[in-house]
């Protein structure tokens, strides 16, 4: 009896995992096809940092920068830290929050050197100086 219960639980787990896999693949396709709002709706159903990053990216593409920033801030995974800070810098820059963008790019660059992050940092520094004049 115990074996049947374990097998049933395992089968349920596999079925749920397969469904998650297909849903996340669907969200990825929607994102690639620029259907960001639909991708966001799928990603928000998952409670993990990769889904949160993808949801934040979907929000960013919809020009919902404040919501994207909030979602990026909720990401705790160290392996996603560079992407989190780099993308958050982009969202802050689009939202004209230049000092916060600079801080985010600097955090991203402290994790790894990246030519795009370096370029964006220097560009935003120039824009901030220009704004302050």
What does this structure look like?
The structure is a single chain. The model is unreliable at 1-16 (pLDDT under 50). The chain contains 7 helices and no strands. α2 packs antiparallel against α3, α3 (49-61) packs antiparallel against α4 and α5 runs antiparallel to α6 (98-111). With 133 residues, the chain is mostly helical. It is elongated and about 55 Å long.
Helix and strand topology:
Layout: H1 2-32, H2 36-43, H3 49-61, H4 65-73, H5 81-94, H6 98-111, H7 115-132
Strand percentage lies at under 5%
Shape: elongated
Query: Taking all residues together, what is the mean pLDDT?
Result: 89
From the alpha-carbon coordinates, what is the Rg to the nearest angstrom? Answer: 19 Å
Largest sheet: none
Number of DSSP helical runs: 7
Find the count of extended strands (DSSP E, 2+ residues). Answer: 0
Element-level helix/strand string: HHHHHHH
Give structural attributes:
mainly alpha; disordered N terminus; elongated; 133 residues; 7 helices
Q: What is this structure, in a nutshell?
A:
The chain has helices spanning 2-32, 36-43, 49-61, 65-73, 81-94, 98-111, 115-132. With 133 residues, the protein is mainly α.
